């Protein structure tokens, strides 16, 4: 099937793949331009990923952080210059300037913006995904919510204390913003939300363990705030294990190694096993598979995470009409043209790239020279739990960095995230839900579909787990060939681009 909507007299067509932060900003920036816009996304909604963990932990309903793409862009659709298609792009044919979507339909473009985002990376161990879901989509959030709440239900049914313990042990792998937020919120659920809702178990006895392969949590934050975040996590009831390199994940728990002093004082790798029936993966991010499709079609370079290495103006070499933005782009900021710096994978970066790509498309239509991308970094935020957060703010006009934590950082984080939500109704819903949760510690989005129908042979199978392996000590240095030995989350920061 081919795209038959092209006629000789039509305006230049800009195709935007993905309606996340970057794609949405590009579409908005082109709203009054003399172009025809086609937005293609595999879902029907724009997702505010920084608050996705709130859906996973039953703090917010899905509509509070997601809005239909057609509703968000309804004014442009009504003006007649924008078309929204729900479909998955399977390939990009740069020779004929077409993208191919599922079903074989070809969509012609004059300019292309690829904002396909990122997915989970299990460091070559994709078989872990069924035991440790990541958090990138609403589907992921629903899966994690179902598994967390079902674990408490299974613990209530279990009469053997030894078999009950793994159901009440929750492990989060990766201590970037997503992992820290998830661990803190899970601890709150166990300590506050569910404490009076079970008769056979005491939810406050549940363990929440955050495992990080690096030496500290929140590796992109200053060390003092990293330490403060660790203290706040412990204050909420979570346990933090740094230097813990995951080596295997099964339905019954996590195997990990730590480096500990040996008898002669030299470090040795000690293997451990943590029995847990609920594991959340927040340790790694990989670029969309469309990056590989672009590399095949354009011979562009990819970095180790599969991101597309772009030109200073966000275009591809030898393809000035093709732009890559957001988590799929390996981009640099040229605030200082002589010392370009990497752009972090956060939502402000994706938004700014989307706007710059649209700006450069318009300049090309006017036969003007495109401009290099300049990223304005206003700082980092990460919430740990109620009244617990850390913040680093860069004040551009006075060239000063401000660091703070605790209640003030949490309050600032709250208002910043609510401000950037799409739509007034969403902001109102979130504010009301958070106000209620703050004063009552209750989470009323605790419903999920029948888990037996969704996962009949997965986590709910009530079988006896294998005997826990004994603690073992390996050679002085752990095997360098182990591809899964590093679970540091520094490459997977999803803070606001998330």
Q: What is the residue-mean pLDDT, rounded to a whole number?
A: 87
Strand proportion:
25-35%
DSSP strand count: 28
Instruction: Please count the helical segments.
Output: 13
Largest sheet, if any? 6 strands, mixed
Distance between the termini: 34 Å
Which stretches of 5+ consecutive residues score pLDDT under 50?
474-498
Estimate percent helicity. Answer: 25-40%
Shape: globular
| Neighbour order of strands in the largest sheet | 5-2-1-9-21-20
Radius of gyration computed on alpha carbons:
24 Å
* Alpha-beta classification: alpha/beta
Task: Reconstruct the topology from this structure.
Layout: E1 13-17, H1 21-29, E2 36-41, E3 45-47, H2 52-56, E4 66-68, H3 69-72, H4 74-79, E5 82-86, E6 89-93, E7 98-101, E8 105-108, E9 111-114, E10 118-120, H5 138-157, H6 161-167, E11 169-173, H7 177-193, E12 207-212, H8 223-236, E13 238-242, E14 245-250, E15 253-261, E16 267-275, E17 278-281, E18 285-287, H9 290-298, E19 308-309, E20 315-316, E21 319-324, E22 329-330, E23 332-333, E24 341-342, H10 347-365, E25 379-385, E26 388-395, E27 400-405, H11 407-420, H12 424-440, H13 451-454, E28 472-473
Parallel strand pairs: 1-2, 1-9, 2-5, 9-21, 11-12, 11-17, 12-13, 19-22
Antiparallel strand pairs: 3-4, 6-7, 7-8, 10-18, 14-15, 15-16, 16-28, 20-21, 23-24, 25-26, 26-27
